[in-house]
Amino acid sequence: MQLYEDLVARGLIAQTTDEEKIKDLINTGKATFYIGFDPTADSLHVGHYMTLALIKRLQMGGNRPIVLLGGGTGYVGDPSGRTDMRNVLTPETIRHNCECFKKQMERFIDFGDGKALALNNADWLLKLNYIELLREVGACFSVNNMLRAECYKQRMEKGLSFLEFNYMIMQSYDFYYLFKNYNCNLQFGGDDQWSNMLFGTELIRKKLGKDASAMTINLLTTSEGKKMGKTAKGAVWLDRTKTTPFEFYQYWRNVDDADVIKFLKMLTFLPMDEINKLAQLKGEELNRAKEILAYEITKDVHGVEDADNARKSAQALFSGDHNDENMPKFDLPKDALKDNKISLIDLLSLTHLAPSKSEARRLITGGGVSIDGRQITDTFYTLCLAELSTSPVLKKGKKTFLKINLI
After folding, report:
1. Which of 98, 91, 108 is nearest to 42 (CA)?
2. In what helix (H) or strand (E) does residue 307 lie, and over which residues does it extend?
3. Which of 294, 264, 270 shows the shortest CA–CA distance to 11?
4. Are the C-beta atoms of residues 363 and 355 closer than 8 Å to each other?
5. What's the chain's Rg over C-alpha atoms?
6. Average pLDDT over residues 70-88
7. pTM for this entry
């Protein structure tokens, strides 16, 4: 099976401008492709991981990646997939976030001589003269067509700012610039970027009289159509200081039965033959497939040692050993106590094991909370100083553990 056919079999490809042309580019290693990353945070998250994995797959097939950091587009903010306007970032924050992204990407992408390129669109976008830009590319864009784009439709009811309206022009200009200066013949991105990418190919055709290609990949969603990458504590980050390797491992270990094979195909580098064998597992046997999924992704993001430790810690927890040093911990400040005690509801809320106090009450009454193996169903239960001093293990449901350290 060739590379493009493998991507299709894994369920990665969503839309293409010309499938036969793109298939030939990718399978023969002739694609110089780019994808953009706007620096909206100081760490990549699991939503980016599938993209990074695809970049790695394509590079292994002899294709040349261009990673485009959005130091310029980050000044505007992509309206795609948004119902509200993004927060405006300072130039210092944008530069810092770009540096963080580049460092994380080096784990997946080979930036050696003649290999992948890491560029920043601030290098050309921030130098553009507004009137010159209008004269050079403004006439190539139909406002009527732009407003029909899916990325703008969902914003029209609440209001689309003129700032965001320009994002499509900036992204299209990026593709035009990279095509002209770096022989970039293919852009790929998430399926929600399709409109922006088509306008880029159109700009190249109108300005240069040449054809460029675009390809989108399916967004990382559950079988219910929900975006992956969120927990009660917030996003699942690739930065180990934001999401520990153990938490990262547990996130994938706890995916729904209906999603495990899909994620093995899309996110791991295991051969399809091996994944198809795992797809035959049913019921409790699927836990083995989940453990493989969690281990493979944790290994790729954090390395073999961290993946081994996370797997050992998970096994220790489920065997009843609560003394494992890799167990996730929560440092509880002593000044969070009132009269040397804290209610279980407040503790669940502080640790983000429950997103709200009402949800904490529901968990407790439903029998979903235990302390050191004791199920607690009393919503008025409080933990005193003596109990907290023993570093109790707070458990939510069957799979979420947290050791409480009083500081």
Report:
1. 98
2. helix 304-318
3. 264
4. no
5. 24
6. 67
7. 0.78
